[in-house]
Write a structure and sequence with these properties.
By secondary structure, the protein is of the alpha/beta class. It has 13 helices and 13 strands. The strands form 3 sheets. Strands 2-8-7-6-5-3-4 form a 7-stranded mixed beta sheet, sandwiched between helices. Strands 9-10-13-12 form a 4-stranded antiparallel beta sheet. Strands 1-11 form a two-stranded parallel sheet.
Length: 385
């Protein structure tokens, strides 16, 4: 009874692996959600909104207070000027922003250049919209953007680039040089760039997140997507946004109105407070996460895994090929019983199965004690088949 538009799209791997963690009692180093909630004053504002009566439909585009706060966020951090009434729309998380952007903009047969490996909703929504994905692979061990592959992916049918930086699952933060190459290509071929920047504040060491909309000639052709979930540790609130030219934002709203219509009313004033009154929280979170990243990567290395230290996001990637497993999925399915740990097989994020076959993604957005226990279990276990 499945519609053709959903054929070949498996259930999301996150549901499968998180259910496995619950059923086995394993340490969940798989799905990217924090163990600790965000700032209590933001929670208090949501509770106050509930008690003040913010329990009915909010405007579909989002309450003015939050749209204005999002516009101020973009100006404060990046110097991007936005009209909050026409160039900002609130969405039910960044996942809905991706879905509404693709459903609102992509016509059947349109080609979309997309960085591989990719967050699994990209594949599902491109297919549902009738688009054709043109993957450009970030290849191990460095996971950098190959500019020749990027140029080769563009054809006369290409209309969009779906960008993700900081990049999930590799942890790559695209450099200004890489982004300029994307921008040059977009301008040359008159492409629209849809950019998922949900990890925008979670970058480490000396790396810098550069919104592609800030590059010359890109503001008018870039739709930027993000959310409060990762930056403020409220992933379950699902409050996101899309910003950019009114025509692109209008396309998102045109699709969103038939998806959720509106997003959580009492959560919107709380997120507005977070953006306006707690602008340093994401920076402090990134410093804390860097320490957790280092703890996880050291533990994975000690357990005998080949790990790539990420530049941003919640995630580190390992190659388990040397252990002798046929692929990362078989490794991850055996891991809860072998070691009492759950991870995510990254091969499900690839079209190029050989490139992704032995990649496994691990989350470090967990308490240090959880990371330490998980890596202790890995070191104590026999990880070979």
């Amino acid at each position: 009874m499945l519609a053709h538009r959903l054929e070949g799209i498996p259930p999301t791997i996150f549901s499968r692996m998180s259910a496995l963690a619950l059923s086995t009692g394993a340490v969940n180093l798989g799905q990217g959600f924090p163990d600790v909630d965000g700032p209590p004053e933001v929670v208090d504002r949501a509770v106050a909104a509930l008690r003040e009566g913010a329990n009915q439909y909010a405007p579909g585009i989002g309450i003015p207070m939050l749209r204005q706060a999002i516009a101020r966020h973009q100006q404060r951090h990046y110097g991007i000027e936005l009209d909050p009434d026409t160039e900002v729309v609130v969405t039910t998380g960044c996942t809905e922003a991706v879905a509404a952007a693709l459903l609102g903009l992509v016509d059947p047969g349109d080609e979309i250049v997309v960085l591989e490996p990719y967050y699994d909703s990209y594949v599902a929504m491109i297919q549902m919209a009738g688009g054709v994905r043109r993957p450009v692979t970030l290849r191990a061990p460095d996971f950098r953007l190959d500019l020749d592959e990027l140029r080769a992916a563009v054809t006369p049918r290409t209309r969009f680039v779906l960008l993700n930086t900081p990049h999930n699952p590799t942890g790559t933060v695209l450099s200004r040089v890489e982004l300029q190459a994307v921008a040059d290509l977009a301008i040359e071929h008159d492409l629209v760039v849809i950019t998922d920047e949900v990890y925008e504040h979670l970058v480490f060491d000396d790396h810098e997140h550069v919104p592609i909309a800030t590059l010359p000639g890109m503001a008018e052709r870039t739709l930027t997507l993000s959310s409060a979930g990762k930056s403020y540790s409220f992933t379950g609130w699902k409050v996101g946004w899309a910003t950019g030219p009114a025509a692109l934002v209008g396309a998102v709203l045109a699709a969103k109105q038939w998806l959720t219509f509106t997003s959580g009313s009492p959560l919107q004033p709380a997120v507005a407070l977070a953006l306006d009154e707690l602008p340093d929280v994401p920076r402090d979170l990134a410093v804390d996460l860097q320490g957790r990243r280092d703890l996880l990567c050291a533990g994975l290395t000690e357990a005998g895994l080949d790990v790539r230290v990420p530049e941003g996001t919640y995630f580190a990637t390992t190659d388990v090929g040397a252990l002798g497993w046929p692929d990362g999925l078989s490794f991850c399915l055996a891991l809860p019983e072998r070691a009492g740990v759950v991870a995510i097989p990254a091969q499900v994020f690839y079209d190029d199965q050989e490139e992704g076959r032995h990649r496994v993604r691990w989350a470090f957005c967990k308490e240090p004690s959880v990371i330490a226990e998980g890596t202790r279990r890995l070191s104590a276990a026999d990880l070979r088949p």
